[in-house]
Amino acid sequence: MTSSTTSSTINGTTKTWQAIQAEVRKRINARLWKPGALIPHEADLALEFGCARATVNRALRGLAEEGLLTRQRRAGTRVALNPVRHARFEIPVIRSEIEGRGQSFGFAILKRETLVPPPDVRARLKTGAKVALLHLETLYTADGAPHVFEDRWINLAAVPSIDEETFVTISPNEWLVREVPFDGGDFTFSALAATSKQAALLACELGQGLLVLDRSTHNAQAVVTSVRLIFHAGYRMHTQI
Amino acid sequence: MTSSTTSSTINGTTKTWQAIQAEVRKRINARLWKPGALIPHEADLALEFGCARATVNRALRGLAEEGLLTRQRRAGTRVALNPVRHARFEIPVIRSEIEGRGQSFGFAILKRETLVPPPDVRARLKTGAKVALLHLETLYTADGAPHVFEDRWINLAAVPSIDEETFVTISPNEWLVREVPFDGGDFTFSALAATSKQAALLACELGQGLLVLDRSTHNAQAVVTSVRLIFHAGYRMHTQI
DNA sequence: GAGTGGTCTAGACCACGTT
DNA sequence: ACGTGGTCTAGACCACTCT
């Protein structure tokens, strides 16, 4: 038997950090280490598992990042009281999402203008009262059917070269992902009932519930873009942990 | 000046893994290393930065987990073509969320019954056609105002001791988090327009858009619980990356 | 076959918060 | 003050995969 997978337990003596992590998980689930309780030091565990302390550290760090453990310098490591689970969902790159389902992707620029935005948009982008921004309205389609309506404002100061882009072959979404590096962003999920305009755009009935994702992305200097995505009726955004 | 923070650059010679990570980020953002391009080996970088290879590894591993880099054994490390950003948002523990805003938390069990569920719920929980489950309907309130309506099914086989719980002092949500360890789950965001029943429960107008979160959690053995949360009108779920 | 990332070790020093 | 996690090192071997 040449069974030597990456995570292995050798005669009960744990070696890899994955195996140690699994063992710790087991003890937590079995309530051997109860929520809120202190678990042994890294040094003790290293001794028990017959490995280096760094290996134990690697295992426990992962569990702490998951939220299963709470670690503090002098205080030691505790089992988290409420396992604060972090869901990690991928930010949908619209084209990949559609083509990944085997559908054909399309988009149409409905509006393109440069003007001083309304106050709420100014607040989100943190721009002055007289600064004009690029405003784009785009409809993305899957197999020709409306998929999502995008209402986007772009900070021209942060993305000067966008003036030369016509968005004939590449969508605003992809162009920005490709051309503008960003450090972070805010995401907000909400819901609304379709107005007549939205119902017409997204080919749904008046008043249907629509999922909305507001998102603004920024880099070190400024807020680059703020966008509202209104998805077609029945759209579900799915993720796992 | 005693400026010795955790992430520091010493005379241009980078030492900590955080500093190395920041430097690599800078080079990617500055397009010094372009998307899709191969970056130097760990060994080379270690030499350049004057540190051990393990330190470089630590820095690059983090960036790979973020999705900014793609690493393969023999092939080397590349800058990711489409920075597949994944947002990491905390699963809201309802009580913490409400109390964290300084509001008072409350809940009321509206329905409690044990019966064989409809087919769609059976499918989600992967239970047989004759297996009875616990069904709970709960309304959570913030400062007395409706916050979220919870429609939950619980697999009694996975959580036997729940029959003795009256949910007078602890909500179903918290009880499950506390008593049942779980390994993973599915999350689905969607939206609906309030029915008259929902409008009455959540004190909103008929037809308002409501955010919906469907979630099922499982452990190694079985699906433990499946729940639909319907949030009050105007609710926004926010996260950052 | 050979090169690259993945991991482990044994030891060391440091940062930080509890005591 | 002191104990615990956080990190770094220098070296080693392994796993994977591209050529």
Structure description:
The structure is a homodimer of 241-residue chains. By secondary structure, the first copy, chain A, is α+β, with helices and mostly antiparallel strands. Chain A has two domains: 9-79, Orthogonal Bundle (Arc Repressor Mutant, subunit A); 94-231, Chorismate lyase (3-Layer(aba) Sandwich), CATH 3.40.1410.10. Helix content of chain A is 27%, strand content 34%. Chain A has seven helices and 13 strands. Chain A has a six-stranded antiparallel sheet with strand order 7-8-9-12-11-10. In chain A, α1 packs across α3 (53-66) and α2 (42-49) packs across α3. The longest helix of chain A has 14 residues, at 53-66. The two termini of chain A are 34 Å apart. The model of chain A is unreliable at 1-8 (pLDDT under 50). The A-B interface holds A 28-29, 35, 82-91, 93, 96, 177-178, 181, 184-193, 207-212, 219, 234-241 and B 28-29, 31, 35, 82-91, 93, 96, 174, 177-178, 181, 184-193, 207-212, 219, 234-241. β13 (237-240) of chain A pairs antiparallel with β10 of chain B. The structure holds a DNA duplex (19 and 19 nucleotides).
